[in-house]
Amino acid sequence: LEARLEQAAMLKRVVDAIKDLVQDCNFDCNDSGIALQAMDNSHVALVSMMLKSESFSPFRCDRNIALGINLTSLTKVLRAAQGDDILTLKAEDAPDVVNLTFESPESDRLSEYDIKLMDIDQEHLGIPDTEYAATITLPSSEFSRITRDLSALSESVAIECTKEGVKFTCTGDIGNGSVSLRQHTNVENDAKSVDISLTEPVALTFSLKYLVNFCKAAGLSDRVRLCLSNEVPLLVEYGLSNNSYLRFYLAPKIGD
Amino acid sequence: TSHQVKLLAFFNDK
Asked: Which of A44, A126, A207 lies closest to B6 in CB terms?
């Protein structure tokens, strides 16, 4: 494997966004890119990352390999990279280590690190293709604000989507709160728009602690997409350039 | 009250 990223910031942000949710992960490398799928310890949330080969230049992967990496270790090494450094990942066939180099674009500084790999026996889940009943695309900062504000009151949030819009509601010991958003097109800045596409109304309840965790990815993208259908896990997607993405799935809470 | 469902109730083990 040899994969060169123009900006180390991308990988730094991705790892930062998922390291509190999952710890030891296989980075599955093949000629289409680098993928990661991992569940959190409680088996309630799942991270699915895809960095397409087009996000790297150049990208070469002659044989499929799984790089088992501890994200705490990776974080320590990535801290040594500046955001605008050029980052290159390298691994041999049947590797013991993954090699990372960081090149400063404006000086002759080159740093190089090896991280020991681990054997990770990871459960791989088949995620069915789902036609979601409701898809909401909104500014990622808005979604972060909603989850943060409501998590101060309650452990859970009910998300209801109807043709009127989407409503986030919570009930806690001190009282209750809600935030409603309507479909809205911002003509000056499309990134601030709220798009709602609905085939049937949905109402689901989720644990806020996971949603707050997902929002650590907000720095990766101006927009976030929420996909919901009744009684299936929520999909929260942060799109990256070149069709790469960081997705989170969260199992709902269901009434007794 | 509601209880938290696990993902394995929805996604298959590959």
From this structure: A44
Amino acid at B14: K
Query: Is A138:A224 a contact under the CB 8 Å cutoff?
Result: yes
Residues A206, A99: Cα–Cα separation, whole Å: 39
ipTM for the complex shown: 0.93
Residues of B in contact with A249 (CB under 8 A): 7, 11
State CA A200 to chain mean position distance: 26
Look-up: residue for tokens 């949905």?
A202
Identify residues of B whose CB sits under 8 angstroms from chain A CBs. Answer: 1-14
> Distance between CA A194 and CA A239 in Å, rounded?
16
Q: Could A125 and B7 be called an inter-chain contact, meaning their C-beta atoms sit closer than 8 Å?
A: yes
Digit-coded pLDDT (tens) for A89-104: 999 998 999 999 999 9
